[in-house]
Structure prediction request, 477 residues.
Amino acid sequence: MTHTTPASRRQFLARAGLGCGSLALTSLLQQEGVLAGTSTNPLAERPSHFAPAAKAVIWLFQTGSPSQVDTFDYKPELQKRDGTELAGADPKTGFFTTSGKCLKSPFAWSQHGESGAWTSEIFPHISQHVDDIAFVYSCYSQSNNHTPAMLEFNSGMIRQGFPSMGSWLTYGLGSENANLPAFVVMHGTKPRGGDPIWSSGYLPSVYQATALDPRGEKPIDNLLPPAELAGEQQRSLLDVLNAANREHALDRPFDSDLNARLESFELAYRMQTSAPEAFDLSQEPEHLQELYGLNRDESKDYGRQCLIARRLVERGVRFVQIFASCPNTPGGAVADVPWDGHSDIKGNHTACAATVDQPTGALLTDLKQRGMLDDTIVIYGGEFGRTSDSQGSAGRDHNPNAFTAWFAGGGFKGGAQYGASDEFGYKSVENRVNVHDIHATILNQMGIDHTQLTYRFNGRDFRLTDVEGQILHDILA
Prediction:
């Protein structure tokens, strides 16, 4: 029989302290996948295919679709031919036929920067940044209806059920911040089509966006627990729930949604501390809040979203998408598609630009001053373009044949001007760019080979770019 010498108080405390440290280290190593070769956390950060030029994306989605010929695609011929018949080609015969009366842009235009890029007068702040922007004038899409067009621009498909680009990037790269979502969507009025636009589709639900309206005091619904469940009581309840769920998951190793559900509970718990701090704009100096237009009724909501986007990216959120809304939607538009200027393009675009121009310029200025624009991609554009002929006397209808998108930061070539529409701005004719090309280019800048980012579903390997996608090397630095 062996006898042991009782440990002294000092020895006991030392061993106990080392044991707690060991447990904490083991937990961290397990989360990062160092132990057992793989991580059980579906949001654990994963390596890219190659060295990335960018680590985050801020997508400024202009819901309702601005007119390319009233914003960034200047067409002198359209100005000259105002009121005359616009010739268009019949898609079946190829012959030209009358399609309507030319409607000139009601706005003054001027060139800016060393690149000489043209911008409309409604964008005095964005125009100051043209030498940091790569313009693509030759985009086109499949649908002339808002919801399928927004689905296409986000997921590559005009049908529901496919993962959005934010979900694909989260699936491919994981999260840099364990206490905040990897993919955040912000909106005022929810855009037409709603949640399916930013859906995770057939990917596990853990890659779904966290969607919120940051105009109120509580931008994330149901984040904080009831008072009776705060502190240790909540943690204890979650631990019991986790234990039961993990035991349930042992018998179902191929059910990916179980791990996703477990992680969503834990992420929500961690967000209770981190999210309120990230959304607290009182930490920002007054001059910066004014730079974003928070002191103006027209721009304060969109400016708040842009400033929050910068704060989220600063804290490791990988993908932030803002769907533009407008306090007033004149010109035939409604709140869920604010740029939809069917009856009065001048009134509509003047109001919408007053909402987004100053905050967008401020975001570019702020990111650049902080050295963040180098590795943050800013995307700007709508779901399609608008017609060069008039709808009624002063409006423009939907037009998927030509529209402009632009990109800044994250390895894009500032001052680049790529592609062209015809002399009326009606159809893309030079270096035509579809949604798959844009997705392939964004993934490339994030260090991902778009042909290798796949997910097997219903017996097929799917990818964001389907079977298409050409990287736009001419607009990359």
User: Anything to note?
Assistant: The first helix runs from residue 9 to 31. The radius of gyration is 25 Å.
